[in-house]
């Protein structure tokens, strides 16, 4: 089998415009001879053994050489970039643009120059009208002279024509009269038919209206009957519900009123006024009176206690003159008696105090009875 492989190569530079071929080149014809083409197999194809397939992969040394060359190119390019100062980055909102700095500027365009060419022709003349076709004559012209009265007499020849014209006119007039009479009869029949149809239509409308009224009356009475039945049913249900409610609420209303009365919703205004206003005032007044009584008793008890303590101190400490004279003299029977009498008095003193303390209690009764009178 045929196989072809070649080394990759760059494209040759192509001119911007195609060159115009010369006359000699256009006349020259290139022929290809396949007899000398090495790619064409000559002879019997079946008997020829195909050569072993050759590997299309490049040699290892060649691959290493290519890689080394690429590395050298990259290193040289990197060195040039490091040596040559680069252009600083553009500021925000701007960009770098390649411009021409030569003395003479050259228009850079990849588009082929095109030029429009024009050509003006002469104005067209109007086509002349086509002449009328006149066929050529094929015979001879012959003329004949006719004198007046030779062919026909007008008075004689015009009579049948007049008869025909007058007859046709009269016949047409009669036909028109008959047609008018027939039209009049048709119109009269049509008017009668229209009147009859109008009467029938009016009668039909009257019957339809009567039928409609009958249907409406029937529907109205049916609705009234249904409404009456509905009201009767509703009334019966209301009566039954009322009777059931009365039976159900017969014991409920007294119990509700009893509960409300027990809860205090129903009360006597006079009794409530006495309970809410008079009794609290009375209790407050009684409490104030009792407090005053207790205060009076406490004050009286304190006064009595002070008097009793003072008297007790006086009786427990005799005068100093009597004490100094007593050791000098001998005690006698008469002196001992008063001493014993004093002791008995001291012993009987608590009883007297008790009687004195009990006496104000008896005396407080008239004072207590008089205090409410004074307060009132």
UniProtKB/TrEMBL annotation:
Q: Which InterPro entries match?
A: Radial_spoke_3
- Keyword Coiled coil listed? The answer is yes
- The residues forming a coiled coil are 204-246
What does the UniProt keyword field contain? Cell projection, Cilium, Coiled coil, Cytoplasm, Cytoskeleton, Flagellum, Phosphoprotein
Coarsely, its chief localization is cytoplasm
List localization entries.
Cytoplasm, Cytoskeleton, Flagellum axoneme
Pfam families linked to this entry: Radial_spoke_3
What are the boundaries of the region Disordered? 1-23, 315-376
Q: Give me the Gene Ontology terms describing cellular component.
A: cilium
Of which family is this protein a member? Belongs to the flagellar radial spoke RSP3 family.
Protein known as: RSPH3 protein
State the organism of origin.
Peucedramus taeniatus (Olive warbler)
């Amino acid at each position: 089998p045929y196989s072809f492989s070649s080394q990759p190569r760059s494209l040759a530079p192509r001119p911007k415009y195609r060159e115009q071929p010369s006359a000699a080149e256009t006349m020259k014809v290139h022929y290809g001879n396949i007899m000398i083409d090495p790619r064409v197999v000559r002879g019997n194809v079946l008997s020829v053994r195909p050569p072993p397939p050759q590997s299309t992969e490049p040699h290892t040394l060649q691959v290493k050489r290519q890689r080394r060359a690429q590395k050298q190119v990259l290193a040289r390019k990197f060195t040039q970039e490091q040596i040559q100062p680069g252009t600083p980055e553009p500021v925000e909102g701007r960009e770098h643009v390649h411009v021409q700095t030569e003395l003479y500027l050259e228009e850079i365009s990849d588009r082929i120059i095109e030029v429009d060419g024009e050509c003006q022709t002469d104005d067209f003349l109007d086509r002349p009208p086509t002449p009328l076709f006149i066929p050529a004559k094929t015979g001879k012209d012959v003329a004949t002279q006719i004198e007046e009265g030779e062919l026909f007499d007008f008075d004689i020849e015009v009579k049948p024509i007049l008869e025909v014209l007058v007859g046709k006119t009269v016949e047409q007039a009669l036909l028109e009269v008959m047609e008018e009479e027939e039209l009049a009869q048709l119109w009269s029949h049509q008017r009668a038919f229209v009147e009859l149809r109008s009467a029938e239509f009016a009668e039909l409308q009257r019957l339809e209206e009567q039928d409609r009224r009958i249907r409406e009356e029937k529907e109205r009475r049916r609705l009234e009957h249904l409404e009456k039945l509905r009201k009767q049913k509703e009334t019966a249900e209301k009566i039954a519900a009322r009777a059931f409610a009365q039976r159900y609420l017969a014991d409920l209303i007294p119990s509700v009123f009893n509960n409300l009365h027990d809860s205090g919703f129903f009360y006597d205004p006079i009794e409530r006024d006495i309970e809410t206003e008079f009794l609290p005032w009375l209790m407050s007044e009684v409490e104030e009176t009792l407090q005053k009584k207790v205060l009076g008793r406490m004050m009286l008890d304190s006064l009595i206690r002070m008097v009793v303590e003072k008297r007790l101190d006086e009786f427990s400490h005799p005068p100093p003159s009597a004490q100094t004279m007593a050791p000098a003299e001998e005690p006698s029977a008469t002196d001992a008696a008063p001493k014993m009498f004093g002791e008995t008095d001291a012993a009987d003193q608590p009883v007297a105090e008790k009687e004195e303390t009990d006496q104000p209690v008896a005396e407080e009764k008239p004072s207590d009875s008089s205090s409410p009178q004074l307060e009132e």
